[in-house]
């Protein structure tokens, strides 16, 4: 029996089969050189090599790498001409070239030529710096006016709210290319009344929405400009401070400057890294970042305490560390002031959370004494140079009022006066008088730099004094309140001061009435006096003819009165300004 042995030979390399085997799609076994393949010998056919070989991709690895690098270079050049890569976060760096080199290596299949998408291949929106600079240059602000605005902002505004530091040697011309959006907001805040503030307000809000919400451009320039806009400009036009406070919290949180630098990647960061981005995290927070985070807390906490609608930027150990670092660094003379204000605000913040979550019933004598003890501890930490600082004293008076004002909402016990409650009421009276005395001691030029945080304190002090003047409690002497701090006299003095300030601010054009906060203040105080005076006369002189019989009737508890019988005041900002207290 003859055995069937497989012919010995070597399979032809891929793409090198003879013509007959190639057409038959059969394996081509080459026997000895010059004898042809096994299949052709067996079939007694002429074994001819295939006239062509398999076509390969004509582009070499070097050419593909060169094309990818050329594409990357063209994109980078395009981005440089527009001023930066605003379509990408500032803290992410592309590693596309490294991936391009890997993709350029030879591979053994047809899919090697397919392009792999790169993060830089998506078109970037116009850069933030370019669009902001265009707006700044389109205003045609004279250099001397820009310099005057910067000096005014540095000396008059920041002493009330030192959320940023502008070195004395830095000029407006130097600030413009470095932080154009901050420059724009400073100029808008300090412009005289003859300028078109409506147009500036619209330009700034449009830039904010575009750069933050659309382009997601987050930088210290945008953050500091946003804080400037909220503190001194936004409240003058439209009452959207709750919205903008949440807006500010979102920017700070997304930048991450309110937290320590991450030591490990989050899930999203790991995903971005896998896509080709390498995150570059700073190892140490800068002083400017720490100062801005503390300023954002101070601002959002002030809105939360006055509106009772939102929460402030959450306090954490990193921000506590920033207090110590700013105290030791002494980079800016105003840093000590910022640290003192934040510490006072923290006491009010804790009190606010307890009242919001537990109501006035939770603020027992124990908690009041605890908050008062915390405030005394903060007072002892204030440097001697700030003991007589007006801003610090106003914050301390507001904190005293915030701690004790719950006594005005607690019903009295008939025929059994509570000494602790009376002490709290007296503390409220002293705090409101102290605050209003400081407010009236300002020179008219100082009022120009007052931010909304101080305006909210003014509203709280004035409303609290009215409540104390009309509080129905047999143990509470309303005549003593009138003799100690007459709310009507304070209103008259405020009207006089605001009229002088309106003249000093040089905002007299009829079309600028919406921006003249002081003219608004005059109308507001006049309307308040008109609405409050009948109620005050009834409380102070209950037996006068014309006051009716209600004043002579015994009261069993404090009457719940609307502290705002204001007529003729039709202004959204002023209604929100007072309506939340």
UniProtKB/TrEMBL annotation:
Record-linked CDD domains: fungal_TF_MHR, GAL4
Subcellular location(s) per record: Nucleus
Annotated Zn(2)-C6 fungal-type domain residues: 17-47
Primary localization class, coarse: nucleus
Keyword Nucleotide-binding tagged: no
Cellular component GO terms, alphabetical: nucleus
Domain of life: Eukaryota
Sorted UniProt keywords: DNA-binding, Nucleus, Transcription, Transcription regulation
Record GO terms (molecular function): DNA-binding transcription factor activity, RNA polymerase II-specific; transcription cis-regulatory region binding; zinc ion binding
InterPro entries, A to Z: prtT, Zn2-C6_fun-type_DNA-bd_sf, Zn2Cys6_DnaBD
Name of the protein: Zn(2)-C6 fungal-type domain-containing protein
Organism expressing this protein natively: Penicillium capsulatum
């Amino acid at each position: 029996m003859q055995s069937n042995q497989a012919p010995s030979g070597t399979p032809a390399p891929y793409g090198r089969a003879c013509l007959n085997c190639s057409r038959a799609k059969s394996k081509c076994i080459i026997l000895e050189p010059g004898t042809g393949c096994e299949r052709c010998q067996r079939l007694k056919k002429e074994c001819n090599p295939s006239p062509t070989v398999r076509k390969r991709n004509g582009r070499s690895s070097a050419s593909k790498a060169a094309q990818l690098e050329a594409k990357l270079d063209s994109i980078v050049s395009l981005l440089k001409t527009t001023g930066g890569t605003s379509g990408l976060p500032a803290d992410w760096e592309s590693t596309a070239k490294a991936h391009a080199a890997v993709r350029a290596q030879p591979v053994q299949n047809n899919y090697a030529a397919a392009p792999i998408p790169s993060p830089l291949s998506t078109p970037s929106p116009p850069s933030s710096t370019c669009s902001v600079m265009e707006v700044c240059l389109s205003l045609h602000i004279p250099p001397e006016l820009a310099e005057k605005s910067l000096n005014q902002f540095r000396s008059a505004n920041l002493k009330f709210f030192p959320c940023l530091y502008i070195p004395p040697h830095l000029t407006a011309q130097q600030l413009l290319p470095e932080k154009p959006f901050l420059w724009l907001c400073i100029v808008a805040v300090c412009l005289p009344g003859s300028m078109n503030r409506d147009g500036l307000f619209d330009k700034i809000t449009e830039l904010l929405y575009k750069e933050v919400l659309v382009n997601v451009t987050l930088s210290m320039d945008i953050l500091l400009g946003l804080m400037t806009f909220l503190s001194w400009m936004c409240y003058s036009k439209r009452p959207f401070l709750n919205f903008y406070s949440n807006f500010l919290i979102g920017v700070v949180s997304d930048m991450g400057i309110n937290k320590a630098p991450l030591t490990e990647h989050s899930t999203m960061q790991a995903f971005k890294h896998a896509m080709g981005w390498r995150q570059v995290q700073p190892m140490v927070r800068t002083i400017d970042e720490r100062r801005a985070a503390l300023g954002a807390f101070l601002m959002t906490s002030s809105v939360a305490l006055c509106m009772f609608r939102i929460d402030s930027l959450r306090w954490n150990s990193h921000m506590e560390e920033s207090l110590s670092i700013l105290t030791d660094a002494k980079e800016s003379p105003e840093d000590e002031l910022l640290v003192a204000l934040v510490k006072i605000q923290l006491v009010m913040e804790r009190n606010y959370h307890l009242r919001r979550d537990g109501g006035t019933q939770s603020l027992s004598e124990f908690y009041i004494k605890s908050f008062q003890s915390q405030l005394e501890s903060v007072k002892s930490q204030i440097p001697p140079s700030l003991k007589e600082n007006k801003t610090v004293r106003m914050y301390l008076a507001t904190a005293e009022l915030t701690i004790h004002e719950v006594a005005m909402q607690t019903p009295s016990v008939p025929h059994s006066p509570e000494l602790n409650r009376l002490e709290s009421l007296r503390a409220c009276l002293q705090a409101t008088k102290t605050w209003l005395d400081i407010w009236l001691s300002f020179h008219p030029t100082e009022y120009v730099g007052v931010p909304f945080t101080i305006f909210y304190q003014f509203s709280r002090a004035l409303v609290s004094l009215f409540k104390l003047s009309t509080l129905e409690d047999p143990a509470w002497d309303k005549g003593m309140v009138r003799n100690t701090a007459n709310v009507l006299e304070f209103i008259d003095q405020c009207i006089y001061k605001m009229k002088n300030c309106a003249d000093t601010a040089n905002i007299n054009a009829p079309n600028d009435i919406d921006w003249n906060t002081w003219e608004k203040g005059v109308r507001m105080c006049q309307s308040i006096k008109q609405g409050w005076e009948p109620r005050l006369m009834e409380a102070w002189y209950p037996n006068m003819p014309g006051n009716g019989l209600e004043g002579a009737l015994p009261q069993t508890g404090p009457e719940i009165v609307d502290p705002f019988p204001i007529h003729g005041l039709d202004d959204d900002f002023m209604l929100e300004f007072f309506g939340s207290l």
